[in-house]
Amino acid sequence: MKVGIPKGLLYYKYKPFFNTFFEELGAEIIESPDTNKDILDLGSTLCTDEACLPIKVFHGHVEKIKDKCDLILIPRIMQIYKREFICPKFCGIPEMIENNIEDLPIITKAPIYLFSSDKFFKWAYETGKILTKNFFKIQKAFERAQNEQKKFKEGINDKGYALKVALIGHTYNIYDTFINMNVKNKLNKLGVGVITHEVVDDNVKYLEIKKLFKRPFWTFAREYYGFISYALKESLIDGIVYLSSFACGIDSVIVELIKLDFENVPFLLLKIDEHTGEAGFDTRIEAFVDMLSRRKRGNLA
Ligand code: SF4
């Protein structure tokens, strides 16, 4: 069986798990290409205008591979951690894809709860039985895939730069260099290193959010807020660059929370959508870096 894996949404985070799982079940993996203009245009045409850019891009990835495979992974991720949720768009992504794209092969629809191995195995079983009737084979594939995922080290932590910024944003915005116009590279070329939230342990982030009136409902909010709070306390960063998807409700809450609680910290909000022009993007980054440098020189004087 040929299994299609669209390179969008949380692909960058869970690729080791999903690829291993399907390979262990004997499938041939067909990954979509890296995001490009064609995929973006396809996604923008197929998807409703109101959706955020990553959802549109995901549509483009599915359209690109749908005729080459027998099954496509559409990860309906409901929860990553207990008592927290991710975006509602993840919960409804199979329905969005089904309604917007015609002539699809089989798509995966079972919900994914990552915080519990038993609940996660339910997804594996529901999905795995499309490929094999052998329960033990599914169980073994699931265990191997979990082991591969555990070995995967995420995050960026540049060393040797005079200035350093926290690069905040969803995995699919940070690691998709087409979507973000290679923002890390742009910062590095201007002499600015980057650190992302994954390099700080989850337990540390949990401790940091205790100062909030209420534990954040959204996993992304806890991760980004907790990381920034810790990074500032430990003087790891000179500023914050937030890469946000236009029309992302979750980002709009997190951005305000960060601006409110860390108001004296240099903050650059870069909103991205299908119309974002690279020239304007570059100008804003350059102006921000210039301000960071002057601020640092001022502090040293
Ligand atoms: S979290 Fe924001 S960017 Fe991500 S899918 Fe949801 S709305 Fe889109």
Structure description:
The radius of gyration is 20 Å and the shape is globular. It contains 13 helices and ten strands. The strands form three sheets. A four-stranded parallel β-sheet has the order 2-1-3-5, with helices on one face. It folds into two domains: 2-151, no CATH class; 163-300, Rossmann fold. The protein is an alpha/beta fold and 301 residues long. The model has no long low-confidence stretch (mean pLDDT 94). It binds iron/sulfur cluster (SF4). Iron/sulfur cluster binds at residues 52, 54-55, 87, 89, 170, 245, 248-251.
Give a concise summary.
The chain is about 50% helix and about 15% strand. With about 300 residues, it is an alpha/beta fold. The chain is globular, with a radius of gyration of 20 Å.
Task: Give keywords.
Rossmann fold, binds iron/sulfur cluster, four-stranded parallel beta sheet, kinase, 14% strand, alpha/beta, 2 domains, 13 helices, 301 residues, 10 strands, single chain, FldB/FldC_alpha/beta
